[in-house]
Write a structure and sequence with these properties.
2 copies of one chain form a homodimer. Chain A has helices at residues 12-23, 27-38, 47-50, 55-67, 86-99, and strands spanning 71-76, 79-84. Chain A has 110 residues and is mainly alpha-helical. The first copy, chain A, has a domain at 23-97: Winged helix-like DNA-binding domain superfamily/Winged helix DNA-binding domain (Arc Repressor Mutant, subunit A, Orthogonal Bundle). At the A-B interface, α1, α2, β2 and α5 of A face α1, α2, β2 and α5 of B. The structure holds a DNA duplex (30 and 30 nucleotides).
Chain lengths: 110, 110
DNA sequence: AATATTAATCGTATATTTGCGATGAACAAT
DNA sequence: ATTGTTCATCGCAAATATACGATTAATATT
């Protein structure tokens, strides 16, 4: 991709929020996260029953969630237990709620 | 892209949340939204001063936000006034806050 | 030692995203 | 009528994302 001159640096917060949002930007990953956050505790790979995807594809989605910092995988061969990364989950929660804090329900110009 | 057999239908809410998240998944679009939501009222294309991007690229990002339903563009040639789509903004706010409602700060298994 | 189970990774195909410059459309001002 | 301003759209290139099957790695079971 052609990139503008010197790759611009957005602010850390902006970058971080975009990164979380991007990770949430696929229905399969939303399902995974909902699954993990409903589970009172952690969980392994029964995701295959829930998702209409091949094992390798699910693994790829898990990897992306891990890279975004939203989940943690605890290896326990031959199984792996996945959990919400609670620290970053809290950060994400906060960043999104800040973004949406404005309440436009009353005043609006359009 | 190869797609699994018959394109699977995720639930409407899941699909909708993923769509909003995807639209938020780029720093430039976060900046645009912050700009619009800070502005007490609407606003046109001074975004070019804020973003390190070409006019056509910014226009593209605006289009994506429009298609995701997060903003509205009111044509007023030769200018265009952009605003937050307050109705969908509220819906997004609600969907994200539901996703993040679990509070893991205390109990956690990992 | 051989087999089974689980999940990551590799290789590959295709789709989508991001970005730019160039062009076009809509109107205002001259 | 001509020119200027603002923004959308087109055409293109490069990067990333999505998906799959096949393979590999790690361990438990037989």
């Amino acid at each position: 991709m052609k990139r503008s001159a010197k790759d611009f640096d957005y602010s850390g917060e902006t970058e971080q929020l975009a990164k979380f949002a991007k990770a949430l930007g696929h229905p399969a990953r939303i399902i995974i996260l909902k699954h993990l956050s409903n589970q009172s505790c952690c969980f392994t790979g029964d995701l295959l029953d829930v998702l209409p995807l091949a094992q390798s594809t699910v693994s790829q989605h898990l990897k992306e969630l891990k890279e975004a910092g939203l989940i943690i995988g605890e290896v326990n061969p031959p199984k792996v237990k996945y959990c919400i990364n609670t620290k970053n989950w809290g950060i994400a929660q906060q960043l999104f709620s800040t973004l949406f804090k404005e309440d436009f329900s009353k005043i609006n110009c359009c």
